[in-house]
Amino acid sequence: MKSKYLTILFVTIFSAANFLSSSCTSCSQTNNVDTLAVDSDSIRAVIEAERIANTPLPNKQLPSVDGIEYSITVFDSVTSGNIQNLKSLYDNSCGSFTFRGNPMRNANYGGKVKGTPKEIVELWSFKTEYDGTHTSMGTWGGGTGWTGQPVYVKWSDELMDRFKKESPALTEAFGNEEIILGSLCCKVYFINFKTGEASRKPLDVINPIKGSVSLDPTLNGNLYVGHGIPKVNPMSQMAFNLFTHNQTFFSGKDPNARISWCAFDSSPIRLGQFLFWPGENGTLYKYKIDGESLTKHSTLRFHAKGDGYAGTENSLCVYKNYGYYGTNHGDVICVDLNTLTPIWHYDNHDDIDASIVCEVIDNTPYLYCGCEVDRQGDTGTCHFVKLNGLTGECLWETIIPCKKLNFGGKHFDGGLYSTPLIGKGDCEGLIFANICQRDKSSRAEFTAFNKATGEVIYRTQLKSFAWSSPVGFLNENGKQYIFAGDASGFAYLIDGKTGEIIFTKLMVGNFESSPVVVGNQLVVGSRGNTIHKFEIR
Q1: Residue 206, Ramachandran bin (φ over 0: left; ψ between -120 and 50: alpha; else beta)
Q2: Is residue 42 within a helix (H) or strand (E), and if so which, with residue range?
Q3: Phi and psi torsions of 10, nearest 5°
Q4: What is the three-class DSSP state of 404?
Q5: Alpha carbons 191 and 186: distance in angstroms, whole number
Q6: Which residues contact 515 (CB under 8 A, 6 or more apart)?
Q7: What's the pLDDT score for residue 37?
Q8: I want to staple 267 with a disulfide (CB 3.0 to 4.6 A). Which of 20, 99, 303, 361 is the partner?
């Protein structure tokens, strides 16, 4: 690694010297030396920053781990579990490849608008199939559910040529900008981002998909898909090769899982040479990736002492070699992903479905996490917390009374389902979340919290409960606007600083899924059988 850094430093300085000698011949020797010295210092600073970024956090358990029981099983004792490079493979990618865009799940999509936007306009809609099969969990239809975020990818010319040569699934509408999403009708769909037409034949995955599919950020062709509902057993983790359009991996039922419910709503994340994938069967899976092949390296199973095992529906949040996720029993755990050793444990009281969000300030990760009202009964409290990601220390806790909603023979938990959105621009000090059923109605409130204190800055009432995660757009002056959707199908454009609703309209049958953002546009699915592309104007 050291020789690699020295090579980078030499090449960069050599290139700078050539540039100066060819284009700045009038400069004095002193100026050349000064400029090269500055360039050398800059390169050294970059190298040091990369060294720090790739230095693993300590594998040292804190006292809070005494509150859990756990087991680690290593299936591949020959392959080291150490992650070769901790740098995010999702940074500077040509799209959004996993739920909320990156390992820290902090949704920095870079949404852009001009001036003050006034409306939300539909550009196209796409119809999925509708599956009326009655399962043990009801009829699921089509479209997308929770979390249901699409993948967006802009393929290079080289990969476009390869797809055209190798893939038997392309349609005439195949283009270099593509939307990929899993549907409740047991299919994975491919859509031309510009036109809304099918860009490939759909993949048949047998069971309904509720979660968000994930594209391998190395662009090795792997698409990762998790079953959400058992139309046909077993439910499974799956991988597909997009060049051949074939299934290349099927995990099947895990006989060692502590829970029989084997759904995989979590969107897996790749780090170095490994893929990490929590399940609702109480297991965190670590897969070794070799080319397109997945082999099980190790697993972690844990539960709080005095409580049973619990599954995970949220997506793993990652900072360096630390992974963070919550369970259906309210446990938040930090895991060293090199060894799968638990580092710390925090009890956040109740079911955690929304993914944990991380932001890093002065090399310290801070986590935002909220729970639902589920195990507490028909009424209870949502605990929205900020934790130190290195220690699990709670920096603040905002307690919000919420209630379950019961209608049509089904119950809908109160509290937090949507993944929080960290404020940007003029909303830098805020974090946003949809909090469901705080009062006696069936509505959610789009809520802005002070990131430093947890104080509620404002609440904006929506027309229904809201599981869809909000997304942000900045204008040229750094002013942030928010798109949010609710379960009744209303779309909202909200001034992030004030909470004022600028625009609202009934757009679809239901917003349950989370959007993917591209510029001033977004794509999001609806329950039923439709996928929609909107533009913020």
Answers
A1: left
A2: helix 29-53
A3: -65, -45
A4: coil
A5: 16
A6: 149, 150, 468, 469, 471, 483, 485, 522, 523, 524
A7: 54
A8: 99
Over residues 54-79, mean pLDDT: 97
Count CA atoms within 13 Å of residue 88 on its CB side.
17
pLDDT at 24 over 90: no
Answer whether the bond into residue 515 is a cis peptide, omega within 30°: no
8-state DSSP, 197: S
Give one DSSP letter per residue of 458-499, joined into a string: EEEE-SS---SPPEEEE-TTS-EEEEEE-TTSEEEEEETTT-
Q: Distances in Å between the alpha carbon of 320 and those of 84, 296, 395?
A: 11, 21, 21
Q: Is the pLDDT of residue 116 over 80?
A: yes
Nearest residue to 83 via CA among 267, 292, 270? 270
Is the Cβ–Cβ distance between 151 and 126 less than 8 Å? Answer: no
Residues β-bridged to residue 288: 274, 295
pLDDT digits (tens, 9 = 90+) for 271-313: 999 999 999 999 999 999 999 999 999 999 999 999 999 999 9
Q: CA 209, 270, 261, 347 torsion: positive or negative?
A: negative
Closest CA to 175 of 144, 196, 147, 203: 196
For residues 409-415, give the mean pLDDT: 87
61, 54 Cβ separation under 8 angstroms = no
Residue 12 pLDDT exceeds 70? no
Cα torsion 316, 66, 351, 185 to 10°: value is 40
Token pair for 155? 């393929």
Q: Which helix (H) or strand (E) holds 240?
A: strand 237-241
The pair of structure tokens assigned to 406 is 């019961």
Tokens linked to 76: 């591949």
The model scores a pTM over 0.90: yes
**C-alpha span between 211 and 182 (Å, rounded):** 7
Q: CA angle 229-220-87, nearest 5°?
A: 95
Place of tokens 């049509």: 408
User: How far, in Å, CA of 55 to CA of 506, rounded?
Assistant: 49
Q: Give the mean pLDDT of the chain.
A: 92
> CB of 332 within 8 A of CB of 348?
yes
